[in-house]
Design goal:
With 364 residues, the protein is mainly beta. The chain is 11% helix and 43% strand. It has three domains: 1-48, no CATH class; 55-177 and 329-364, no CATH class; 179-314, YVTN repeat-like/Quinoprotein amine dehydrogenase (Methylamine Dehydrogenase, Chain H, 7 Propeller), CATH 2.130.10. The protein has five helices and 26 strands. The chain has a five-stranded antiparallel sheet with strand order 4-5-6-7-26, with no helix packed on it. Strands 12, 13, 14, 15 and 16 form a five-stranded antiparallel sheet that branches. It comes from Mikania micrantha (bitter vine).
C-alpha cells in the first residue's frame, strides 16, 4: 500500500476505520503496527471516531442460577429509540463494581471499593490497574484527559487531603485541596471544557441543605474553583452537557427548569445562566440519577419506573427497552470507539468471553 499511497493518505484512510479492522491490520507488518499504535494516530482516530454507548446490565442466567453483569456496546444513539439490541452481542462485564467514575476518549474509569481503580477501554477490551492512592478515607474520584500534557488523570479528594494520579508517570502526587470545607457531592462528574464539574451541597448537623454550588477542577492547572448556580434555593443535583453547553437541572414545588451556560469561561465563573426549558411538572421526579451526558439532546435518567429517555424540547418521554425481561440496566455511559490504552495494561478477554448461544436465545 505504501508503494502507491502517500503517508498522509494512508493516515487519512486508517483514522476513519473502526477499531476491529485496525487491530487486525496491526499483524500485517511492523510498519503498520507502529503506525496504528503511535500516540498521534490513536489521538487522531479518537477525535474522528463515532460516539458509542456502553450499557451495563445485571442479567439472570438460568443455566447458572445466578445474576451476571454483562455489557453491550452500541454504534449509534438512534438504537436507543427503536430496539437498541439489534445486532449487538452481550459480553461479560470484567469487574465486580458498576461505579463508573467518568468516561473520556473511549476510556472508562471504574472504581472498585477495597480493590482499586481500573482504566478500561471496552472497544479493545484492555484495562490498566491503578495502584491504591496514599489514603483511602472518604474518597471522591474524578477522571479526565489533560490536553496540555496529553495524559489521563484521576482525582482523589478526601478529608486527609487531595491527590492526582497521572497515567504516564504511573504515580500519585499531592495537590491543594478545595478552599471550602469538604462538601457533599450530589452528582456524578461532568467533564466539560477541560475541567471536571460536580453539583455539591453544604449541610448542617441536621442534614439541612443551606447552600448548593458547582465545584470545578481544571485538569491542566490542577486547581479547584466554584460556579454559582442560577437558583441556589432550588433542588439541583445534576450537571450535564446539553447541545455543547454546560447545563443544570433544577426543581422546586413540582416544577423543573433546565439552565444552560451559553458562554463558558474558566476565568469568569459569574457568566449568566439562561433558562433553556421549563416544565410545569417535574419529569425527573423520583430520578435516582441522570446519566452524566445527554445523548443527542436527549436526557437519560434512572427512576422508579426504570431507565427513561426524555427530549426536553419536544417533551418526549419513553422507557428504554430492556435486554431481556429478567435483566435491568445498572449503568450507562457515552464513549468514543478508540484505541486508547493499546499496548498498555492487560487484556480483559479472559473475562469477556461472548455470551453462549443458549444465553443469546434468552435475550430475544
Amino acid at each position: 500500500m505504501s508503494d502507491h499511497l502517500s503517508e498522509d493518505v494512508i493516515v487519512e484512510i486508517f483514522s476513519r476505520l473502526p477499531v476491529k479492522p485496525l487491530l487486525r491490520f496491526r499483524s500485517v507488518s511492523k510498519s503498520l503496527r507502529d503506525r496504528i499504535g503511535s500516540p498521534n494516530f490513536i489521538r487522531l482516530h479518537t477525535l474522528r471516531s463515532p460516539k458509542k454507548l456502553t450499557i451495563i446490565h445485571r442479567a439472570r442466567c438460568k443455566e447458572e442460577s445466578c445474576n451476571k453483569l454483562i455489557y453491550t456496546l452500541h454504534d449509534s444513539e438512534d438504537h436507543l429509540f427503536c430496539n437498541p439490541y439489534i445486532r449487538v452481542t452481550p459480553v461479560e462485564y470484567p469487574f465486580k463494581s458498576i461505579r463508573i467514575v467518568g468516561s473520556c476518549n473511549g476510556v472508562l474509569c471504574v472504581y472498585e471499593s477495597r480493590i482499586g481503580i481500573n482504566l478500561w477501554n471496552p472497544s479493545i477490551r484492555r484495562k490498566v490497574t491503578v495502584p491504591d492512592p496514599p489514603s483511602s478515607d472518604r474518597l471522591i474520584h474524578g477522571f479526565g484527559f489533560d490536553p496540555i500534557i496529553q495524559d489521563y488523570k484521576i482525582l482523589r479528594i478526601s478529608d486527609a487531603g487531595s491527590s492526582v494520579y497521572t497515567l504516564k508517570t504511573r504515580s500519585w502526587h499531592e495537590i491543594a485541596s478545595p478552599t471550602r470545607r469538604f462538601p457533599d457531592v450530589s452528582s456524578c462528574q461532568c467533564l466539560f471544557n477541560g475541567a471536571l464539574h460536580w453539583v455539591v451541597k453544604l449541610t448542617d448537623s441536621y442534614d439541612v441543605c443551606h447552600y448548593r454550588y458547582i465545584m470545578t477542577f481544571d485538569l491542566s492547572s490542577e486547581a479547584f474553583s466554584t460556579i454559582g448556580l442560577p437558583e441556589p434555593s432550588w433542588e439541583t443535583s445534576v450537571v450535564t452537557i446539553i447541545k455543547d453547553c454546560l447545563a443544570v437541572i433544577s426543581s422546586k414545588c413540582g416544577k423543573s427548569k433546565i439552565w444552560v451556560k451559553k458562554e463558558y469561561d474558566n476565568t469568569n465563573t459569574n457568566t449568566a445562566w439562561c433558562v433553556a426549558y421549563r416544565f410545569n411538572t417535574d419529569p425527573f421526579k423520583g430520578a435516582m440519577r441522570v446519566f452524566q451526558r445527554s445523548i443527542d439532546g436527549y436526557l437519560v435518567f434512572n427512576n422508579f419506573k426504570g431507565i427513561m429517555i426524555s427530549n426536553p424540547e419536544s417533551r418526549f418521554l419513553r422507557d428504554l427497552r430492556k435486554l431481556r425481561r429478567s435483566s435491568f440496566i445498572v449503568e450507562m455511559n457515552t464513549c468514543e470507539e478508540s484505541l486508547e490504552l493499546l499496548g498498555l495494561g492487560t487484556s480483559c478477554d479472559h473475562h469477556n468471553e461472548p455470551i453462549s448461544e443458549s444465553q443469546k436465545k434468552q435475550n430475544k
